[in-house]
Fold this sequence. Notes:
Layout: H1 10-21, E1 27-28, E2 39-41, E3 46-51, H2 71-94, E4 98-103, H3 110-121
Parallel strand pairs: 3-4
Antiparallel strand pairs: 1-2, 2-3
The chain binds zinc ion (ZN).
Amino acid sequence: MKRVRREHTAPELAVRRFLHSAGLRYALHGARLPGRPDLVLPRRCTVVFVHGCFWHGHDCSHGSVQSKTNAPFWARKIADNRARDARQQDELRAAGWRVEVVWECQATDESFLRRLARRLLRR
Length: 123
Ligand SMILES: [Zn+2]
């Protein structure tokens, strides 16, 4: 396994483009925050993660490990990732952040992104 966290992935860029065009401004890759959120909106006390469905174990067709060779290995790996994600999100919430997660499979879903943008603009 190479690095789990990749930056500037296609899904991340799609989310950034959409939110930017909706008038939202953000900082990238909050290095000092748990989990290094992909987008940080300090004024709205919100962080956004764009998660790859496979690595972060989304319950969708992209997130399935069934078809992979050595499925038990990946299942364990992904369970670890999910546990770490949950821990980091708890830490962020405890520090007063609102946490939004955009799954890779949602990153090109316009109606999903519109709802997210509306929610963020209200904060
Ligand atoms: Zn997914």
